[in-house]
From TrEMBL:
Record domain Alanine racemase C-terminal: where: 696-820
This protein's UniProt keywords: Isomerase, Ligase, Pyridoxal phosphate
Positions of post-translational N6-(pyridoxal phosphate)lysine modification: K490
Annotated metabolic or biological route of this protein: Amino-acid biosynthesis; D-alanine biosynthesis; D-alanine from L-alanine: step 1/1
Domain of life: Bacteria
Family: Belongs to the alanine racemase family.
Keyword DNA damage: no
A Gene Ontology cellular-component term: cytosol
A GO MF term: ATP binding
Protein name: Alanine racemase
Length: 822
């Protein structure tokens, strides 16, 4: 059993002041109030950050978590007097201290992996290579941060023979704390690149900080070809194992490599002997990561033939949960490439956040290489499933079937293998449920995912929920204390999704959501969204739904206000919340300044309406040339609010800041801000050199057909484009009906294929368009990037003479949305 200590023992380890109402054995460490596992045996660390953990202690107590690590100045509420509190100077160092103590109790080989790119892949591949012979404990997913590392180390138990842990940093001083916890014996240094450069004064400083992880290792493995020049001077005190495709002096010198039928074959020299190795990948990143793993295994003394054999069977690493639309109104959470009890817990937490369907289903395969007896393992799995209140379990595999008596879900069925399940899948009649697929790689659960997912064409909009969360937290970090945040999810969340986006925003505790029309708000309520929702364009015919679904209308005209007042009065509803829109110069919707006196009188005559907020919209808050006008709008708005408050005799929420104003005009944050396009990584007010936002959306398609075309032959409708010399074109599966604007045709747009730009040629058709790929090595069905973090939406918008909003919102509903969370 991983970490298992009495609360008294933990208090002594931490040197904490304690208020222990009842002794309890702690098995789980919590850092997020929204992810509770076995509440009575959990210890919550009230970390401070974008969310102050101390604020959520009453909520956790109500969920039966009774043990907390808090700052010593925390005032324990009297109603929580029978809870357990450990009071420490700082909470994060306490968490790290406990993890370091737990790590020190075990004498095992520990591999620490750091670098800029490839950490998670290298860790997972080393696990695949080592686990047939060793009992291996590793970081779940990409848990490599100041909080992720201690949670990873807490998993270590007496049965483990080797540990593999990631370590990632973004600021100076962080690695020393990680090294003190991990105490690695072997280091692996992956590709060093620009990630997190902004946190350091120079690339050299960042390198020095990363290398602090290896100061006490007895062996360091790295690729000489990818290592910065400074690395040798900083590593000369360490014993190292080097890999190179350039230097014969490397410990593993790879002198030849060839790509054949989707595989890469290597020939290398090691200890004056020639070795051969093959991997099932051809991209450069995979080659680099695989060579690191090959070298690490050789450095550990593994049998060369066995290592070569296992390298050929390496599986692609998918560290992300994908949320897709399924058939029969189901949602599919696809985590079908790996299965262990730690990643199962993460996936179940993600499932718990999905409120769009009342029924939760888990399709789970056998779990391999856990190091536990089968009965003990599946008893733990059954407890985890029970805690997460799964309605239906479908077990796949011999071991889980043999242990089915442990599972007490309302519905359960078991199958010997994936083929048996697929034969019976239609009879299971999935409908109106959220289905989590969690399978070990060799069960090939991707086949189940294909059957259950909605069939759409191969153009896909991928939404990175981690990036969305990162951007949200960035804006939260620049808000003044107490300022609320309203997230704009109108127009299908700018084309990116509905309940999927609202769900992640609700999980991350925004204060309000805003939609364009009532039916959008109704859809969110039906999907389990409980946040206050403002409706920007309420229609008189939808007043009934406003009240039924507790939606709050924007009121922008006397006509609308008077009709709503009559309706609410007839319903005998009191204090119905409304949001007043003031026109301070945008001249789109809203009450004018000269109308405020009449507005005040009408509101006083209709006390059944309660003004919840008053707001206005800035017309050009991101443009310096219009700053005088922006300031004029702000002053007008303050005058209106003052007049309204005086007349009504009560206060309300005031908000005028949109995305670009949040950072450019901090004095305009007032009581609340409205965050829109910034959630998706786009903010024209932020200097690109200091832009910490992350692109959220990737639009990708694929090649339908390749054609050789002679110079002068016309291409596409209208016959107005041609190649200047003989070449080849690729027809790709996207057109203006998908949202790829017709203006992008005839070379005005470009897409990315295999890392190279391909310009359009000919007009964009309804369902497809053509690219000039004369100078690119491509095959039919190759992936094509329309936009991503490299070919950004802003670039497309500039090419089309429009704005990023239009690019995003134009992506049609027939384009499949895939939401992923890493």
């Amino acid at each position: 059993m991983p970490g298992k200590y009495s609360l008294t023992a933990i208090s002594e380890i931490l040197g904490a002041k304690r208020s222990i109402a009842r002794e309890v054995t702690i098995e789980h460490l919590l850092t997020d109030s929204r992810r509770i596992t076995n509440a009575s045996k959990s210890l919550f660390f009230a970390l401070e950050g974008n969310r102050n953990g101390h604020d959520f202690i009453p909520e956790l107590y109500a969920a039966c978590v009774f043990s907390f690590v808090v700052k010593e100045d925390y005032q324990i509420p009297p109603e929580l007097g029978n809870a357990n509190f450990l009071l420490v100077k700082e909470v994060l160092p306490a968490l790290q201290q406990l993890a370091a103590y737990h790590r020190s109790k075990f004498n095992l080989e520990v591999i620490a992996v750091t670098g800029s790119n490839g950490k998670t892949v290298v860790k997972e591949w080393l696990y695949q290579l080592l686990s047939p012979d060793k009992n291996v404990v590793r970081s779940p997913k990409s848990y490599n941060s100041q909080t992720g590392v201690p949670l990873s180390l807490w998993q270590i138990d007496a049965q483990n023979e080797i540990g593999i842990f990631e370590a990632g940093i973004s600021l100076p001083g962080e690695m020393e704390r990680l090294e003190a916890m991990i105490k690695p014996t072997i280091g692996v240094f992956t590709h060093f690149a620009a990630a997190h450069d902004e946190g350091f004064s120079s690339r050299k400083q960042k390198l020095g900080e990363k290398l602090k992880l290896f100061k006490n290792v007895h062996l360091l493995v790295y690729n000489q070809d990818q290592a910065p020049e400074e690395i040798s001077e900083q590593l000369n005190v360490l014993k190292s194992f080097t890999i190179s495709r350039k230097s014969e002096q490397a410990d593993l010198f790879v002198f030849d490599w060839k790509t054949i039928s989707g595989k890469t074959k290597f020939q290398a020299l090691y200890q004056q002997k020639e070795l051969n190795c093959c991997i099932p990948f051809t991209d450069e990143a995979s080659i680099e990561n695989a060579l690191l793993c090959w070298g690490t295994m050789l450095a550990l003394g593994a049998d060369t033939a066995t290592v070569s054999q296992r390298m050929e069977t390496l599986n692609a690493v998918s560290m992300r949960l994908e949320l897709k639309n399924g058939t029969h109104n189901c949602s599919i959470i696809d985590d079908s490439y790996n299965s262990d009890i730690n990643s199962l817990e993460i996936a179940l937490n993600f499932l718990e956040r999905q409120k769009q369907h009342p029924k939760k289903t888990l399709i789970l395969s056998d779990i391999y290489q856990s190091g536990l007896k089968s009965s003990e393992l599946y008893k733990q799995v059954a407890d985890l499933i029970k805690q997460n209140k799964i309605d239906k379990l479908i077990g796949v595999g011999k071991e889980i079937s043999e242990n089915q008596t442990f599972f007490q879900t309302p519905e359960k069925q078991f199958f010997e293998d994936t083929d048996s399940l697929l034969k019976q899948l239609p009879a299971l009649q999935f409908k109106d449920e959220t289905i989590l697929l969690k399978g070990s790689r060799n069960f090939e659960f991707e086949r189940i995912s294909r059957v259950l997912s909605q069939k759409t064409h191969e153009t896909i909009l991928e939404i990175n929920l981690n990036a969305l969360q990162h951007n949200l937290n960035y804006y939260k970090s620049i808000l003044k204390p107490g300022v609320k945040l309203m997230a704009m999810v109108k127009a299908f969340s700018y084309g990116s999704g509905s309940f999927e986006i609202a769900g992640i925003l609700q999980f991350n505790t925004v204060d309000f959501l805003a939609v364009a029309y009532v039916d959008e708000g109704v859809a969110l309520r039906n999907a389990g969204i409980t946040l206050p929702i403002m409706v920007l364009n309420p229609e008189v015919t939808a007043f009934e739904e406003l009240t039924k679904y507790q939606l709050e209308p924007e009121i922008y005209s006397f006509n609308l206000l008077e009709k709503l007042a009559v309706f609410i009065n007839e319903k005998s509803i009191s204090s119905f919340p409304v949001h007043l829109k003031i026109d301070t110069g945008m001249h789109r919707l809203g009450f004018e300044f000269y109308e405020v006196a009449q507005l005040c009188q009408l509101l006083k005559n209709n006390p059944q309406l309660k003004v919840k907020s008053v707001f206005s919209h800035l017309a050009a808050s991101g443009s310096a040339e219009h700053d005088d006008f922006t300031f004029q709008q702000f002053n007008t708005f303050k005058k209106v609010c003052s007049q309204l408050e005086k007349a009504l005799g009560y206060t309300f929420i005031k908000h005028i800041s949109n995305t670009s104003a949040i950072s450019r005009w901090p004095e305009m944050q007032l009581d609340m801000v409205r965050l829109g396009i910034g959630l998706y990584g786009i903010d024209t007010a932020i200097d690109q050199e200091n832009n910490f936002l992350q692109p959220v959306a990737t639009l990708k398609t694929s090649i339908s057909q390749l054609k050789k075309v002679k110079a002068g032959e016309t291409i596409g409708y209208g016959r107005n484009d041609m190649l200047e010399k003989d070449g080849k074109i690729a027809t790709v599966r996207i057109g203006y009906a998908d949202g790829y604007l017709r203006v992008f045709g005839n070379g005005n747009g470009k897409m990315l294929i295999n890392g190279k730009y391909a310009p359009t040629i000919g007009h964009v058709s309804m369902d497809m368009c053509m690219l000039d790929v004369s100078d690119i090595e491509v095959q039919e069905d190759d992936e094509v990037i329309v936009f991503n973090e490299e070919l950004r939406i802003e670039t497309l918008a500039a090419q089309a003479g429009t704005i990023p909003y239009e690019i995003l919102t134009n992506i049609s509903q027939r384009v499949k949305r895939v939401y992923y969370y890493e």
